[in-house]
Amino acid sequence: MSFSANIHFLGASGTVTGSKYLLELPNKKILIDCGMFQGIKELRELNWQQLPVNAADIDIVLLTHGHADHIGFLPRLVNMGFRGPVWVTAPTLNIAEIILHDSAKIQEEDAERANKDGFTKHKPAKPLYNLLDVEKTLPLFRPKPEGEWITIDDQINIRFQYSGHIIGATFIELEISGKRIVFSGDVGRSADPLLFDPKKPDKADVLVLESTYGDRLHSENSVSEKLLSIIEETVRKNGTLIIPSFAVERAQLLIYLIWRLHKEGKLPGSLPVILDSPMGIDAYSVFRKYHDWHKLDEDTCMEISRRIHMVQSYRETWEIIENPEPKIIIAGSGMVTGGRVLSYLKVYLKKQETTVLLAGYQAEGTRGRQLLDGAKEIKFFGKMHRVNAKIEMLQGLSGHADQQELTEWVSGLKNRPQAVYLVHGEQEARRALKTILTNTYGWDVKTPNLFEIEELEV
Description:
alpha/beta, Rossmann fold, 2 domains, 31% helix, globular
């Protein structure tokens, strides 16, 4: 049975941020992901625009996972009139609580600072949403099982399928009148140290596929060997290793890799390893709650907790900073845009014996990117800070599938999709992946623009 529908590409089309896709069916409006635009000013300002659809008319939101670029717009959507349910996996609900509270807090602080310092065009500056808005949003969440078909109505069934990437992450399949639409969300990697391999779709009449690394292959060099080498060199210099880290998944992966080096007897037993990230610690508690979503059993998690010191207060942060002994610090934020890591860098960035290890993507305009590009000084806390520390980059920790892994992820499809849309990627990444998919499978692959509407006849 065929049907007509529209897909509105409301985000992450030509960018890697703001994921929102409205599936408009004859009797139902379904929003897949509800992400916030992040990054440069031109993108952030899109969060303030009205949607080209009435939020109150959206019947249901389905979330692939809990990163802010996939869920961070939800409180704003509720403020705009949305009152329907938000379907998620159980771990994603817990991650969303952490992410949304943090997002609201940051926006409130940014607005307060803008008003205090007078650098806002809009007086008074307002946050996109606040903590009260988050409290109005979370009761709409409905946790759903992974791997089971769930009925929305007599014509629509949906299924959340494990996709790696972060804990709770899935791709979403919609079965509509016998036809299947697949939204990939963010596809994880095979052979991840923490997470299981992503499941693969076996049917897709319409495929909406991420393309973050559609133009590159990840390094096959050993991450653990590089990490150990950097730790050993820093300890020999009697220095401190500072690792700016994303709070969800990356921080947990780093403490696991360091714990494993300790377990193998490759680290000095007395070397302090410190996780100073309130969000990262909260996310680790989600890992301990949902062991069936990852490879670590509770005994391993307890061992990690005994070896890794998890900071509980800002006072403790300063006690650690003032201790001159060699140590490993893992702290947010991953791109050095804020967080506790700045307090450490204020003291340690000027020291030649310090190593700063960047462990993830560093976007243009961020302090992390400046460090990576060899800046001699960077500005934070209102002052310029000299960079005498050694700056290193740890490749191979990405939570996104690369070009080859994305191509293999769709290899299990038993049918030829009528339409394939590439999203969540910069233009060059989308063009490269389009070429690969077209040459490999002969598919009709499109790269929709932001706010474009595609008509489906399936």
